[in-house]
Amino acid sequence: KPISDAKEADLVAAISLLSYYTEQGPRQLKPHWVFPDWLSVITGRLHFETWHPRGVIGIISPWNFPMAISCS
């Protein structure tokens, strides 16, 4: 891909995706109570949920927007 095309579309999209995920990351990883569902109504228990990152992943992306796709 020519550098001029990458700067215009791919790099801008990758930067916007990374800024979005840096804002959403702490909010999504914060422990929270799960609202009562049908099972908790029957058992009388509330559920507490936490999310844990899995680690490094690998991706084979298409040629059209490789940076933006790997950032999303």
Write the layout of secondary structure elements.
Blueprint: H1 3-29, E1 32-34, H2 38-43, E2 47-49, H3 66-71
Question: Could you characterize the architecture of this molecule?
Answer:
With 72 residues, the protein is mainly alpha-helical. Helix content is 54%, strand content 8%. The protein has helices at residues 3-29, 38-43, 66-71, and strands at 32-34, 47-49. The protein has a two-stranded antiparallel sheet with strand order 1-2. It is elongated, with a radius of gyration of 19 Å. The mean pLDDT is 77.
Task: Write a compact overview of the structure shown.
With 72 residues, the chain is mainly alpha-helical. The chain is built from 3 helices and 2 strands, in the order αβαβα.
